[in-house]
Structures are given as structure tokens and as C-alpha cells.
């Protein structure tokens, strides 16, 4: 594959010489040319921009510079003919990569090339990064990994004169693309992102095909969590299923984690797979079992009012991180005159040897939604309490109204 990049900051593209792309350059899989747009400027100041018609802030990049630049890059003429091609930043060809040692044959994805009706399939692909473009996706990266020649046009300021894009369609297959719903200073960062996403999918760039066959989005889902040695670290352990050696169980676990992560973080991807009929019965059962449903936790706590006020300020955030969502918390103090033989008070006296002094009995009701099992729901609440807190209670499906089942101490 040949990649050409037109920019006013050629040094910005130096990362294309490093790591996997640098290895691809060494192996002859990839050739990269970076062109200084100012080489096509015609005035003494080598200016590439002008004020926008109709007024407004900023400057617009000139068609009289961009047009000749794209003409020459497509034809390999003018300044483009003598532009240097990037070399690898560090030699790699004489060193085996860790994934070469267990390589897998890969001949490329069967995704079709991105050629639209009326386009010349032999024309280079011109990619123009712009916040106004269509979102860049893994599907695009797969299709573009089949290209022989890709040209990136890096805009700056308020962008490139639209006539440049319109005119380029006579010599290129033009795609205006965005890498996210945010604005960058220029297109160079977007080029680095897209170039790596595309080139890594070319056969021979990755030594082990599984490195991208199992990628996030390879099957329309986000990739699940990954683990390596040590088995236990800072009290956190690798899931037992990954250690047991049963590959069928491991594959099932990874599929489940992938489905659940995607449903939680990118639910629109799940809906897309449903429209494509790409989820099987087992997948749907996993998603149904994990769907958040209304839950309620009803606890009695023996805690000082000051401690409770401190906890309650951050309780919602802690519960959300634990998977207890949209939580509302209701708490009231319980008078011991109503429950003189309360179990928590008895436990406290047995353990401490005296009656509670500053500790007060509280009833706390939490209503929310969660995909956790009920035991885990209770644990999620208790985990937010000080470690030595005396408590009892449980969780159930549905919501509990404050004051329901209350003793004489409950004040709505």
C-alpha cells in the first residue's frame, strides 16, 4: 500500500515511521510519502489560506494551493515526484516479533473495496478528515485495507475550500471522514489514527492474525477484558475460568463478557447486530439475564449521624460504579424506644462491652435498577459503608416505598 499525506506540518506525521507501521515500511508492505503543502504555494510568503467569503472567524485553506497539490500527488508529478518517502524509525526486520513465533496465516478480510456507483475503481482514495464527515468505523478500515493508494488531505484553520473536495472527485474517490464528535486543531492526528487502523489489517503487518481477528468490532462487539501474570495483584484475581484450560468454557466466557460490555457501553451496536440477525439464542439469553431491572435494598445500620452524612454524599456515585444505577436513597433514624431489643444494638454491646454512645440506628432504603443478582446488589450498598459498620437487611426486585413496613420510629 502507498500512503501520501499533504500537510503544512510534515514533522507531525513522523509517528508513521514507528512501531508496526515502521515494520511494514521495512518489509515493503507500506510506502509513506509526506508532502509539505507550502511547496505548491505561489506567493513570497508561501501562504495557504485566506479569509472566508461571507465573513466569520478564522481562515480557509486555498483551492489554488490544494488543487495543484492533489493533482501532482495523484499523478506523481511536480513536487510530489521528488518527495521523500519515510523510512522506518528503527530497524526491525532482523528481529523476530513475539507474535511471529506463533503466527497464523491471514490473507485479508473478505470485505469489498469501497467503490461506489459511477466511481473509477482504479482511482486513488482521498480521505479528508473533517468534523463534518461521516464517522470512521472498523468496517471502513477493513475496506480501505484493500487499497493500493490512499491520500490524506490534512486541513487546518476553518478547513479546506469545499471546491477542492468537489473538484478532487474527478481524480479520486473522495471520502470526508470524522474520528469523533469533537474538534481538533488539524487533520494530522486523525490521519495517524486512521492510518494505523487501516495498515494493521493488511496481511503481513501483524504476525499473528488472531491479534486483529479477535479485535473489538471484528464481530460487531467490543472486546472483553484481558489479563496476564501475576494471577493475583493487589487483591484482584484473574477469573478462574481463564486458568482452568477448558477452551470451550473460555470462549463462552469471553463471548459473554463481550456481549455485556457492549450492551453497557455501546448499546447501539447490540441493536445493529439484532437488525442484522447476528445474535443467536444464547446471546439473547445472556443479554436478557443481564438487563437492568428495578431493585430495592432495605438495611438497618448502626452508625453515627456524622458518618452517615459523609457516606450519603458520595453513595450514589459509588453505587453507579458498582452497577447499581439510578439509585435514590431514603434514610431515617430509628428510636431505640421503639426497638429496645434491636439485633444490631445487641451485637454491638456483645462486641464492644457497652451500649452505643454516638452510634444511632438508621433505616436506609435504596431504590434503583441493576443487572446484578440480589446478593450482589446488597453487597454493592454495604461496600460503601465503613468496614466495621453493624448492619442487617436484604435486597429484592421491585421498589420499596419509604415508610412501608416501618416501625413507630419511621418518619416519612
From TrEMBL:
Pfam families: tRNA_m1G_MT (PF01746). One of its GO terms (cellular component) is cytosol. It catalyses: guanosine(37) in tRNA + S-adenosyl-L-methionine = N(1)-methylguanosine(37) in tRNA + S-adenosyl-L-homocysteine + H(+). It is an enzyme of class 2 (transferase). Specifically methylates guanosine-37 in various tRNAs. Belongs to the RNA methyltransferase TrmD family. NCBIfam families: PRK00026.1 (NF000648). HAMAP family: TrmD. This is tRNA (guanine-N(1)-)-methyltransferase. It comes from Corynebacterium antarcticum.
Amino acid at each position: 500500500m502507498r500512503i501520501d499525506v499533504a500537510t503544512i506540518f510534515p514533522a507531525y506525521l513522523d509517528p508513521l515511521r514507528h512501531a508496526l507501521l515502521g515494520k511494514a515500511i521495512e518489509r515493503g508492505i507500506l510506502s509513506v510519502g509526506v508532502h509539505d503543502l507550502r511547496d505548491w504555494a505561489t506567493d513570497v510568503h508561501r501562504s495557504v489560506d485566506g479569509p472566508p467569503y461571507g465573513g466569520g472567524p478564522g481562515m480557509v485553506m486555498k483551492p489554488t494551493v490544494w488543487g495543484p497539490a492533489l493533482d501532482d500527488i495523484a499523478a506523481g508529478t511536480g513536487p510530489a515526484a521528488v518527495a521523500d518517502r519515510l523510512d522506518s524509525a528503527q530497524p526491525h526486520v532482523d528481529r523476530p516479533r513475539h507474535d511471529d513465533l506463533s503466527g497464523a496465516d491471514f490473507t485479508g478480510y473478505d470485505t469489498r473495496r469501497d467503490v461506489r456507483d459511477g466511481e473509477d475503481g482504479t482511482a486513488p482514495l482521498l480521505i479528508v478528515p473533517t468534523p463534518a464527515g461521516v464517522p470512521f468505523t472498523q468496517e471502513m478500515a477493513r475496506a480501505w485495507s484493500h487499497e493500493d493508494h490512499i491520500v490524506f488531505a490534512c486541513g487546518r484553520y476553518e478547513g479546506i475550500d469545499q471546491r477542492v473536495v468537489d473538484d478532487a472527485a474527478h481524480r479520486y474517490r473522495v471520502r470526508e471522514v470524522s474520528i469523533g464528535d469533537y474538534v481538533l486543531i488539524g487533520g494530522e492526528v486523525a490521519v495517524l489514527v486512521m492510518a494505523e487502523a487501516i495498515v494493521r489489517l493488511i496481511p503481513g503487518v501483524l504476525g499473528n492474525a488472531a491479534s486483529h481477528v479477535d479485535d473489538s468490532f471484528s464481530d460487531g462487539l467490543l472486546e472483553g477484558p484481558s489479563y496476564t501474570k501475576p494471577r493475583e495483584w493487589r487483591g484482584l484475581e484473574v477469573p478462574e475460568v481463564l486458568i482452568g484450560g477448558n477452551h470451550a468454557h473460555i470462549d463462552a466466557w469471553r463471548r459473554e463478557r463481550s456481549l455485556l460490555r457492549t450492551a453497557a457501553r455501546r448499546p447501539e451496536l447490540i441493536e445493529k447486530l439484532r437488525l442484522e440477525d447476528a445474535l443467536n439464542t444464547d446471546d439473547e439469553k445472556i443479554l436478557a439475564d443481564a438487563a437492568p431491572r428495578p431493585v430495592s435494598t432495605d438495611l438497618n445500620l448502626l452508625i453515627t449521624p456524622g458518618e452517615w452524612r459523609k457516606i450519603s454524599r458520595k453513595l450514589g456515585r459509588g453505587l453507579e460504579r458498582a452497577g447499581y444505577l439510578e439509585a435514590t436513597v431514603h434514610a431515617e433514624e430509628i428510636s431505640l424506644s421503639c426497638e429496645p431489643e434491636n439485633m444490631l444494638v445487641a451485637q454491638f454491646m456483645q462486641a464492644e462491652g457497652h451500649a452505643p454512645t454516638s452510634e444511632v440506628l438508621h433505616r436506609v432504603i435504596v431504590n434503583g435498577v441493576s443487572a446484578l443478582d440480589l446478593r450482589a446488589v446488597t453487597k454493592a450498598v454495604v461496600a460503601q459503608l465503613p468496614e466495621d459498620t453493624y448492619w442487617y437487611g436484604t435486597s429484592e426486585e421491585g421498589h420499596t416505598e419509604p415508610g412501608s413496613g416501618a416501625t413507630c420510629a419511621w418518619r416519612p
